[in-house]
Automatic annotation (TrEMBL):
The lineage of its organism: Eukaryota, Metazoa, Chordata, Craniata, Vertebrata. NAD-dependent protein deacetylase. Residues 261-287 are annotated as: Disordered. CDD domains: SIRT1. Binds 1 zinc ion per subunit. Its EC number is 2.3.1.286. This is NAD-dependent protein deacetylase. It is an enzyme of class 2 (transferase). Belongs to the sirtuin family. Class I subfamily.
């Protein structure tokens, strides 16, 4: 990167990039979401995101959705590092499994972002896919009601991708992006969920793959590592900061984060009525 030889970085990310924002990941023992679902009385943890289970009983997901809806958390240093990759003209695309919306919130533009597991930004009937106003769906869910499709009377859900559902159209852009990548950065994911997990095997064999994660995952669990693979294990915020320092970007990222976060705060602060200064706008399978 320092020599300017890297120009098309693909970032692959998961819940570990948002733990620094106070959002639990899924599979970390003890703190992960799947270890803390006892109150929902579901047969197994992933059932809460299973489309057939939802079809039978949408209530556990809707109870959880009240907590998952974006709005309570801010992007952290790791998100802003990825935005800086974009600002430096180095980000070909970010593929995220996260549904917390923090990538958009930190300013990574839509055309650079693939939300592979969907988002809360839109909603539709889970049976006939008729679109439903996302804000109305949110209001109903927050009040403990089930939003109902006006066309077929099926339950409406936000367009987060459940086990048993297809991934969004945009995800299939990977077939063009990954062969073009000259560096793959994998951050904060257990690489346990297909088809997303296998994306990391679709860059050319000579392309460096950098894993930043607490523990080795996916192809990084095998020995020896592929010759162009490198992993930095530990807390993601520390590793990303270390990388930013090596690149000489640390202060720039902090300044970007401070100005963007202050802008967002003044935009949402009711005392600032003008709203100025804001530039915001088990190998499971999904199929
Ligand atoms: P997981 O919880 O499976 O994995 C998160 C990974 O990030 C683990 O390897 C953690 O060790 C690591 N991690 C967490 N916090 C970290 C930190 N501060 N520093 C370094 N590493 C950290 O989450 P995902 O891989 O994103 O799908 O899960 C993939 C999919 O499984 C999700 O999109 C979700 C879930 O079922 C659906 O809900 C459809």
């Amino acid at each position: 990167m320092k020599l300017g030889r890297v120009r098309n970085i693909v970032v692959v990310a998961g819940a570990g990039i948002s733990t620094g924002s106070g959002i639990p990941d899924f599979r970390t023992p003890g703190t992960g979401l799947y270890a803390n679902l006892a109150k929902y009385d579901i047969p197994y943890p992933e059932a809460i995101f299973n489309i057939d289970y939802f079809s039978d009983n949408p209530h556990p997901f809707f109870s959880l959705a009240k907590e998952l809806y974006p709005g309570h958390h801010r992007p952290n240093y790791v998100h802003y590092f990825i935005r800086m990759l974009h600002q430096k003209g180095l980000l070909l695309r970010m593929y995220t499994q996260n549904i917390d919306g923090l990538e958009k919130l930190c300013g990574i533009p839509d055309d650079k972002l693939v939300e592979a597991h969907g988002s809360f930004a839109t909603a539709a009937c889970h049976l006939c896919y008729t679109p439903y106003p996302a804000e109305e769906a949110k209001q109903a869910i927050m009040k403990g009601n089930v939003p109902i499709c006006t066309f077929c009377a099926g339950a409406v859900k936000p367009n987060v991708v459940f086990f048993g559902e297809d991934l969004p159209e945009k995800y299939f852009q990977h077939a063009e992006d990954f062969p073009k990548a000259d560096l793959l950065m994998i951050m904060g994911t257990s690489l346990k969920i297909e088809p997303f997990a296998s994306l990391v095997n679709t860059v050319k064999s000579t392309v460096p793959r950098l894993l930043l994660n607490r523990d080795p995952v996916g192809p990084f669990e095998r020995r020896p590592l592929r010759r162009a693979d490198y992993m930095e294990l530990g807390d993601l915020s520390d590793s990303v900061r270390k990388l930013a320092e090596i690149l000489g970007w640390h202060t720039e990222i902090q300044d970007l984060m401070n100005s963007h976060e202050n802008g967002l705060r003044s935009y949402t602060d009711p005392s600032n009525s003008s709203g100025e200064n804001s530039d915001s706008s088990e190998t499971d399978s999904m199929h």
